[in-house]
Design a protein that fits this description.
This protein has 115 residues and is mainly alpha-helical.
């Protein structure tokens, strides 16, 4: 359950790659598993919190330093929790994201990325 393949198939592609959202219109791009992975792991944050707290969308091994995890768990009403304008992710989906990140955000082959 904590793999990029599972997350893409069960969370990102179905909950986030909606028209005018993360469908290639802007990043992260959740259309394919590869575009999902490439636009998340060690990818610079373009829209940050007011303090500029995050450097990357996903920091392998550190969900708390990952902008993705923040965006699906935030209670900030101005920033908004992802997915916007839709039901929030379930606790199981959020934990799968957290688990994948904390296990090093392995790619489809199970390899841990190096910066």
């Amino acid at each position: 359950m904590e793999s990029i393949a599972w997350l893409h198939q069960n969370v990102f592609a179905v909950r986030c790659a909606n028209p005018a959202c993360h469908d290639g219109s802007f990043e992260p791009d959740f259309r394919t598993m590869q575009s999902t992975y490439s636009s998340l792991v060690f990818h610079d944050v373009t829209k940050n919190d007011p303090q500029g707290s995050y450097d990357y969308r996903v920091v392998p091994g550190d969900a708390d330093a990952s902008w993705l995890y923040n965006r699906v768990t935030t209670n900030d009403q101005v920033l908004g929790r992802m997915p916007l304008y839709a039901d929030p992710l379930s606790s199981a989906e959020i934990e799968a994201i957290r688990g994948w990140i904390n296990k090093g955000a392995p790619d489809a082959q199970g390899d841990i990325p190096q910066y």
